[in-house]
Inverse folding.
């Protein structure tokens, strides 16, 4: 159930951010990490261009309430965990390694 819930949360968060975010910044939801009890979640994002990371992260966290409402309407019957957004440093590091090896 945890993996299915995480994937539902990832998909819905990606759809919400694509609809609501500034069109000059691309926000990609890379993964969701759920707590064991499914009461908390961290939604990891990447931002392009990187210069927009701070603004995009602030926007995403500022709009958690709206995203919660969107998730409730979209995922009937699923209890929505408390969540926060973070930059996916793992993905960022992988891209940097790819750039260096090219």
């Amino acid at each position: 159930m945890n993996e299915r819930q995480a994937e539902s949360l990832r998909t819905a968060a990606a759809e919400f951010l694509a609809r609501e975010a500034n069109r000059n910044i691309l926000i990609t939801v890379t993964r969701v990490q759920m707590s064991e009890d499914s009461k908390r979640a961290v939604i990891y994002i990447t931002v392009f261009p990187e210069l927009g990371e701070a603004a995009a992260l602030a926007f995403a966290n500022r709009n958690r309430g709206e995203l919660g409402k969107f998730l409730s309407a979209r995922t009937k019957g699923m209890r929505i965990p408390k969540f926060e957004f973070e930059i996916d440093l793992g993905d960022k590091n992988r891209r940097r390694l790819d750039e260096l090896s090219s």
